[in-house]
Amino acid sequence: MRSSLLRSVKTLARPTTARAYSVDSVPSRKVTVLGAAGGIGQPLSLLMKLNPLVSQLALYDIGGTPGVAADVSHINSRSEVAGYMGDDQLGLALEGSDVVIIPAGVPRKPGMTRDDLFNINAGIVKSLCTAIAKYCPHAIVNMISNPVNSTVPIAAEVFKKAGIYDEKKLFGVTTLDVVRAKTFYAGKANVNVAEVNVPVVGGHAGVTILPLFSQATPKANLSQEDIQALTKRTQDGGTEVVEAKAGKGSATLSMAYAGAIFADACLKGLNGVPDVVECSYVQSTITELPFFASKVRLGKNGVEEVLGLGPLSDYEKEGLEKLKPELKSSIEKGIEFAKKN
Ligand SMILES: NC(=O)c1ccc[n+]([C@@H]2O[C@H](COP(=O)([O-])OP(=O)(O)OC[C@H]3O[C@@H](n4cnc5c(N)ncnc54)[C@H](O)[C@@H]3O)[C@@H](O)[C@H]2O)c1
Ligand SMILES: O=C(O)C[C@H](O)C(=O)O
């Protein structure tokens, strides 16, 4: 899937006309990015403009989108781009959308947890999801805004209240955890990173991020010490970037890459491509928690199948039990917020 995105990028990077591929065989798909002028939003908008599965790209933010849209629109790829700014244009940005990607909200600064963003981002996510329920109730939603462990349950509650909740269409984007786990594993195991697969389950914050290195391929004989160090680095990947950026935000470029991969997988699923599997934080029954990240098969209606955890090592079983209380309380916090507000 990553290689197909890279293939798409390479194809579109050639100085060709927009007719270099057959648009007739690819369905029309509208993608909306909410928070498109931000640190993630801008590179993500660029990557979605390069995706030949997109026919209409709507870029929405509270400010700055006319410039981003004008800039991105000059790229000679398939989609038509439009910028929308401010509350009164949100409906237009969303109408007819097949996939809505939400990287809107504030990022962390050093010393903060993702949960410290709750007070500001919960309200932003709630109001954007209220608009989604009104203007594109059947769209697939890719939630990037943190804390994902709580913002996805908030979105679910907003959609329930509006009477349009479809658990198959709501996704917390945890692809960056998978991207990191693959990179770190390849480095340690000295294998070709392009061939690496590592499922990451649980949630998207600290210990709730549980990479399953026992299932990583290609297999490598790593020591338990190496596995523990890789697990910790994956769990702390976001903090590593926050500290390196020293007050200037969190991961934006790697997140845009990860967000583009996940949106591409959703579009492929919608278009009927078989066997599209990605890890994502979704409504789930594979543990006792109502939301959980695991491998998910994507299809024409969004989630086609939530896949199980597979065999876990003792270390992973321990990690799974450890993450449950924190994930449970983040889910409850989100649900409570949405019910009260
Ligand atoms: N899921 C993940 O793996 C992951 C990874 C990285 C960052 N994030 C999260 O993504 C979010 C965005 O990060 P960023 O670095 O792009 O931040 P940023 O501050 O650079 O950009 C956020 C954008 O959201 C916009 N915005 C604010 N309120 C809005 C509203 N009501 N409607 C539309 N747009 C609105 C802002 O104007 C800004 O352009 C943060 O919450 C961050 O923690 C998640
Ligand atoms: O770490 C953050 O705050 C941003 C994001 O969740 C990440 O994993 O990079």
Automatic annotation (TrEMBL):
The active site is at 204 (proton acceptor). SUPFAM superfamilies: LDH C-terminal domain-like, NAD(P)-binding Rossmann-fold domains. GO terms for molecular function: L-malate dehydrogenase (NAD+) activity. Keywords: Mitochondrion, NAD, Oxidoreductase, Transit peptide, Tricarboxylic acid cycle. It is an enzyme of class 1 (oxidoreductase). Its EC number is 1.1.1.37. Substrate binds at residues 108, 114, 146, 180. The keyword Transit peptide applies. Its main location: mitochondrion. Residues 30-172 form the Lactate/malate dehydrogenase N-terminal domain. GO terms for cellular component: mitochondrial matrix. NAD(+) binds at residues 35-41, 61, 121, 144-146, 255. It catalyses: (S)-malate + NAD(+) = oxaloacetate + NADH + H(+). Residues 174-337 form the Lactate/malate dehydrogenase C-terminal domain. It holds the Pfam family Ldh_1_C. CDD domains: MDH_glyoxysomal_mitochondrial (cd01337). It is found in: Mitochondrion matrix. PANTHER family: MALATE AND LACTATE DEHYDROGENASE, MALATE DEHYDROGENASE 1, MITOCHONDRIAL-RELATED. Belongs to the LDH/MDH superfamily. MDH type 1 family. Homodimer. This is Malate dehydrogenase.
